[in-house]
Structure formats: structure tokens, C-alpha cells
Design brief:
There is one protein chain. This protein is an alpha/beta fold. The chain has 9 helices and 9 strands. Strands 1, 2, 3, 4, 5, 6, 7, 8 and 9 form a 9-stranded parallel sheet that branches. Helix 3 links the parallel strand 2 and strand 3. Helix 6 runs parallel beside helix 7. The longest helix has 22 residues. 44% of the residues are buried. The structure holds pyridoxal-5'-phosphate (PLP). The site of pyridoxal-5'-phosphate has 14 residues, from strand 9 and helix 9.
């Protein structure tokens, strides 16, 4: 079922990426498609890999570790995109290639500590999640103190910063979405002014807002629904 669904949905998503990127003079290959398999069975993971997708995203440490364990393939890069509890730091470091959701200085410090103690191999690659919308229910460094706090986290030698991540509000208000994404891009520019090795990745854009995110500079979009359909039980 997932294989036939992807046959239809993947070309459509790729066309959308290409059109959005080219519309603002960007190279579509500068946008990584992270296929979000959360909530879907292993069959979706296998279908995604068979369709040539290599970057897969999950938002729970347990589900990611279980799928990674059941999957008998090495051609996959796992992205952790959801909130990570500090006690799960060792596990997440052991199983992921990129953690998008480092949302506090304390989590950064914990990840650095477990990496220093030999979990994973080498520095752990991270993105710092910023609460660009100010919504209370959202995780992330608050916008007001993000610059200072992220620079502090980026000093940790066990972490390798690849850039920033944000989640936009769930809305069709195009201006609000654009402003949210632009804030993240401008924050990364300021951070890179202080610290050029901050990385250049901007993880922003989901099914609902991927075109606007790409127009505003996204280099990683995290797409679930548009590829796999509604999550079972959601
Ligand atoms: C679930 C999720 C996505 C994918 O959302 P869709 O709307 O299904 O594309 C992207 N990012 C994060 C952080 C998520 O939790």
C-alpha cells in the first residue's frame, strides 16, 4: 500500500519542491526532503527507502529506535524531529544522524555529556530548535534569548551544529508563515556572524507550508502527510 502511495505522492512532492525553489532562483537540490514516517508502520519506512528516500524522520525516541532496530538496512539517515527528554539522551545519540530538536541549553549539555562518555561515534550533529512563533505549546529556544543561549550551546565541543529548526504555527495565514520562517533565517545569519561554523541548515517546512518555507530559504523540509497520507489513528 505504501509503495503505491509513494509512486503517486513522491513525484508530486518533488515537483512542488522544484517549482518553489526555482521560483525564487534557488537550486532544488539544496533542499533535503526528510520523509517523516512517525505513526506509520515499518512498511512505510521500507517503501520510502525503496523509493530512493534516504532521510527519514521520527518524533519519538522509542519509535525511532524500534524501527531502526527492526530494519535490516544501513542506507538510511535517521532524523530526530521531536522533543527529546534528557533521560533519553544516550539512546537518541546512539541511533540518530541528526537531532533537529535541541530545544534548550540543558538538553544540549546533556547530549554533550553522553557523547563525551562515548555514546554514538564522534560529535553529535544537531540543529537548535527555536520557538519563532512564541506559542506557549511549542518547544524551542524563546526568540528573545535564542541568540545568546544558542551561542553558549554551540561552544560545547561534543556537539556539531548544523543550523536551526523551527515549527510554524498551524495556519493558512501566508504572511504569518513567511514572517516565522524569515525570523529563523535572520537568526541563523546573526549567529553565523558571531560563529561561522554554526552550519547553514534551516529545517523548516511541513506538508502545510513547505512552499513558503522553501521560498524563505529552507534547506530541509520535514514531510509526512503529503507523502504517506494521514497517520493511522491520528
Ligand atoms: C509530524 C511532524 C512533521 C510532519 O508533518 P506533516 O504535516 O505530516 O508533513 C514535521 N515536523 C515535525 C517536528 C513533526 O512532528
Amino acid at each position: 500500500m505504501y509503495a503505491s502511495r509513494l509512486q503517486e505522492s513522491l513525484p508530486r512532492v518533488r515537483d512542488t519542491i522544484t517549482a518553489a525553489a526555482e521560483g525564487v532562483g534557488r537550486d532544488p537540490s539544496d533542499v533535503t526532503l526528510v520523509a517523516v514516517t512517525k505513526g506509520h508502520p515499518l512498511e512505510a519506512v521500507e517503501a520510502a527507502l525503496d523509493a530512493g528516500l534516504k532521510d527519514l524522520g521520527e518524533n519519538r525516541v522509542g519509535e525511532l529506535a524500534r524501527k531502526a532496530g527492526e530494519l535490516d538496512r544501513s542506507d538510511v539517515r535517521w532524523h530526530m524531529i521531536g522533543h527529546v527528554q534528557r533521560r533519553k539522551a544516550p539512546r537518541v545519540v546512539a541511533v540518530t544522524d541528526l537531532i533537529h530538536s535541541v530545544d534548550s541549553l540543558r538538553l544540549a549539555q546533556r547530549l554533550a555529556r553522553v557523547t563525551g562518555e562515548g555514546e554514538g561515534d564522534g560529535p553529535v550533529r544537531v540543529l537548535y530548535q527555536v520557538n519563532t512563533s512564541g506559542e506557549e505549546a511549542k518547544y524551542g529556544f524563546p526568540m528573545e534569548s535564542a541568540e545568546e543561549r544558542i551561542l553558549e550551546a554551540a561552544e560545547l565541543p561534543e556537539l556539531s551544529s548544523a543550523g536551526l529548526m523551527t515549527m510554524a504555527p498551524y495556519t493558512d495565514d501566508e504572511k504569518m508563515l513567511r514572517d516565522t520562517f524569515r525570523r529563523l533565517r535572520e537568526l541563523l545569519e546573526r549567529l553565523r556572524g558571531h560563529r561561522p561554523v554554526m552550519g547553514t541548515q534551516l529545517s523548516m517546512g511541513m506538508t502545510n507550508d513547505l512552499e513558503i518555507a522553501i521560498e524563505e530559504g529552507s534547506t530541509m523540509i520535514r514531510i509526512g502527510t503529503a507523502l504517506f497520507g494521514e497517520r493511522p489513528g491520528a
